[in-house]
Specification:
Layout: E1 5-8, E2 26-29, E3 36-38, E4 43-47, E5 50-53, E6 58-63, H1 66-72, E7 74-76, E8 81-83, E9 92-97, E10 103-105, E11 110-118
Antiparallel strand pairs: 1-5, 2-11, 3-10, 4-9, 6-8, 6-11, 7-9
Length: 134
Amino acid sequence: MVKVLIKKLDSAVKLPEYKTNGASGMDLVAFIKKTIVIKPKTSSLIPTGISVAFSEDYEIQIRPRSGLAAKFNISVLNTPGTIDSDYRGEIKIIIYNHGDADFNINNGDRIAQMVLSPVIKMELEETSNLPKTI
């Protein structure tokens, strides 16, 4: 396990959690004062009320919840979204409605999942020739 520090930006915030032992992602929930209605073919930025800190050897990927995608055509717009190790602001999720009906998000609704992933830095070497592909 890798330790990730998490800060609640309000005492009422619900912390992310794994729903099962086999889950690779922690569910993120909306932290909003009133219902947000996402019209068809539009997006909305949904706050979670948390910020995090972790080693620069990792990133947090923000991914859609498959149930929302399958049942309601709801996804994370920039999937996977990336939370870099040097970002300390509130995690907010860009939710997009691919469907034909309004989609309501209420406080505490599970809206996305976050997965901790290793980062491998690349070293670029400029060349005038690349090896041929097979």
